[in-house]
Write a structure and sequence with these properties.
By secondary structure, the protein is mainly alpha-helical. The chain is built from three helices and no strands. It has one domain. This is YkgJ family cysteine cluster protein.
């Protein structure tokens, strides 16, 4: 499965604890990554500055579902289920 162009659910919904250029403390859940372009593409894709965690999130039916809306909901549930405390 490949990412749906313009979705960016994984770049918005999930938290990222590692530093990202422009977000040295990481990215909180629900916050748009500063590296997303206007058309919701990763500005770091294929570049060495891209955090390893971002590259470790391959598109899958379980994560992305069949629509952008489903991706946002699936990832929101995953984020809640894995939140500490």
């Amino acid at each position: 499965m490949e990412c749906r162009p313009g979705c960016a659910a994984c770049c918005i919904v999930v938290s990222i604890s590692s530093p990202i250029p422009g977000m040295p403390e990481g990215k909180p859940a629900g916050v748009r990554c500063v590296q997303l372009t206007a058309d919701n593409r990763c500005g770091l894709f294929g570049r060495p500055e891209r955090p390893a965690v971002c590259g470790s999130l391959p598109a899958s039916l379980e994560m992305c579902g069949t629509s952008n809306e489903e991706a946002f909901e699936n990832l929101r549930r995953l984020e809640e289920a894995t939140r500490p405390g």
